[in-house]
C-alpha cells in the first residue's frame, strides 16, 4: 500500500472535529415521511436538514472524539458499522458549509431591504437593530415575566374566557350596540390596533427571555390597514419545548391580558347599563382577536404551537402532500411511518372541522347582529 495514503488515513482517523461556535441544531422534526434536524450557521444564516444518523454524529462533535471513539456508539444505536467513507463525507459536507471549527467564515447574510412593495402594500423596517431594541425592552419588563406574576394573569385570563363564553348572547348584543356608536367604535378600533402592535412586540420580548433572536421590526401595510410586525429568528432551535410554546403564544396571551381591566369593569356594572353594553362589544371583539390567533390553522400562532407540540415541520404543506400522494400513489403513501400517516390524516380532518366551525360561528354571529 502507498505509505502516503496510509498516513493520510491514519491522520483522518485521529482527527477530532468540533462544530464551530454558535452552530444551531434543532430538535427532531417530522417532515413528510422523514425525521430531520435543522442546522444553521450563526453568521450566514444558511440552514439545511440532516437525518437522525447524521445528527447522532454531529451532536457529538466536541473536539474530543475520533472516528474510532464514535463508531461503537453508532453501531450500538443503529445496528450497523460507521463506514469511513460516510464519516469523511459528513465532515466534508460540514467543512464546505463552514460548520466546523477552524473552517473559513462565510460572509454574513445580506440585510433585508429597508422597504419592499409599493404604495398599496408592502413592508418597511422601522429600527436598525431589532434585537438590541427588544433586548432593551426585555431588561425593563423582565420583572413582569416572573411566574409569580404571569401565572395569576394566566388564571385570570382563563376565568375571563369562561365568563365571556357564559355571556355570549350579551356580548353579541353589546357588539351590535357598539357598532351603532361611531365614537365608541372608533375608540375600540384604536384599542384593538394598539393591542395588535403589542402582540407583535410580545413575541420579540418572549424570544429575548428564552434566548431567541429578533431580526426585524417593521410596519406592514395593505391599504387601508397598517400593522407592526416582529420577526423572531432562531427560536425553532431552542431545546426546551416550553420556551418555543411561550414565544409562539406570547402575543395572544398579552391580547387577553389587556382585556382584563375592561372585563372587570364590565362585571361590576349592572345589567342594562349602556356602558356595560359597549364594554361587552369591546370584550367580544378583543377576545375574538386574541383567541383566534390560537386556532391551529396557518399562518396563526396556534398553528406554530401545534407544530411545536407535535414535533413537525411544515405541517399543513406536508399534510397536503400526503393526501395528494394517497390519491396518486397509494403505495408510496403507505410507506410513510405510521405516526406520520395518523398525524397528517388527523390534521386534515381537524382542518376541515375547524374551517366549518369557524364558518358556522361567523354566520351565527352575523345573523344575531343583523336580527338583534
Automatic annotation (TrEMBL):
Bias (Pro residues): 104-114
Does the UniProt entry include the keyword Transmembrane helix? yes
Membrane-crossing ranges are 144-166, 219-238, 245-266, 278-297, 346-370
Region of interest: Disordered: 101-120
What species is this protein from?
Streptomyces drozdowiczii
The name this protein goes by in its record: M50 family metallopeptidase
Q: Which UniProt keywords apply?
A: Membrane, Transmembrane, Transmembrane helix
Amino acid at each position: 500500500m502507498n505509505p502516503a495514503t496510509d498516513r493520510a488515513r491514519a491522520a483522518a482517523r485521529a482527527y477530532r472535529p468540533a462544530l464551530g461556535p454558535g452552530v444551531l441544531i434543532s430538535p427532531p422534526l417530522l417532515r413528510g415521511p422523514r425525521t430531520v434536524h435543522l442546522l444553521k450557521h450563526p453568521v450566514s444564516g444558511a440552514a439545511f436538514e440532516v437525518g437522525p444518523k447524521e445528527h447522532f454524529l454531529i451532536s457529538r462533535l466536541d473536539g474530543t472524539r475520533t472516528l474510532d471513539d464514535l463508531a461503537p456508539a453508532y453501531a450500538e444505536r443503529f445496528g450497523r458499522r460507521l463506514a469511513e467513507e460516510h464519516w469523511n463525507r459528513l465532515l466534508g459536507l460540514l467543512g464546505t458549509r463552514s460548520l466546523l471549527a477552524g473552517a473559513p467564515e462565510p460572509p454574513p447574510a445580506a440585510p433585508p431591504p429597508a422597504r419592499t412593495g409599493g404604495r398599496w402594500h408592502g413592508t418597511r423596517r422601522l429600527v436598525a437593530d431589532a434585537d438590541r431594541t427588544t433586548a432593551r425592552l426585555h431588561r425593563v419588563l423582565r420583572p413582569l415575566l416572573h411566574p409569580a406574576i404571569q401565572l395569576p394573569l394566566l388564571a385570570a385570563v382563563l376565568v375571563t374566557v369562561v365568563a365571556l363564553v357564559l355571556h355570549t348572547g350579551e356580548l353579541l348584543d353589546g357588539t351590535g350596540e357598539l357598532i351603532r356608536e361611531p365614537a365608541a367604535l372608533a375608540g375600540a378600533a384604536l384599542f384593538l390596533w394598539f393591542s395588535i402592535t403589542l402582540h407583535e412586540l410580545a413575541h420579540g420580548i418572549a424570544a429575548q427571555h428564552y434566548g431567541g433572536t429578533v431580526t426585524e421590526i417593521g410596519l406592514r401595510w395593505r391599504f387601508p390597514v397598517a400593522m407592526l410586525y416582529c420577526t423572531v429568528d432562531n427560536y425553532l432551535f431552542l431545546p426546551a419545548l416550553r420556551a418555543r410554546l411561550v414565544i409562539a403564544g406570547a402575543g395572544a396571551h398579552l391580547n387577553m391580558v389587556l382585556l382584563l381591566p375592561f372585563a372587570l369593569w364590565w362585571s361590576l356594572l349592572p345589567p342594562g347599563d349602556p356602558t356595560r353594553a359597549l364594554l361587552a362589544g369591546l370584550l367580544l371583539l378583543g377576545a375574538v382577536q386574541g383567541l383566534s390567533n390560537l386556532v391551529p390553522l396557518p399562518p396563526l400562532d396556534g398553528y406554530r404551537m401545534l407544530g411545536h407540540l407535535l414535533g413537525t415541520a411544515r405541517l399543513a404543506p406536508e399534510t397536503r402532500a400526503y393526501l395528494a400522494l394517497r390519491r396518486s400513489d397509494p403505495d408510496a403513501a403507505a410507506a410513510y411511518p405510521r405516526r406520520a400517516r395518523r398525524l397528517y390524516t388527523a390534521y386534515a380532518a381537524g382542518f376541515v372541522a375547524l374551517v366549518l366551525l369557524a364558518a358556522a360561528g361567523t354566520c351565527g354571529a352575523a345573523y344575531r347582529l343583523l336580527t338583534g
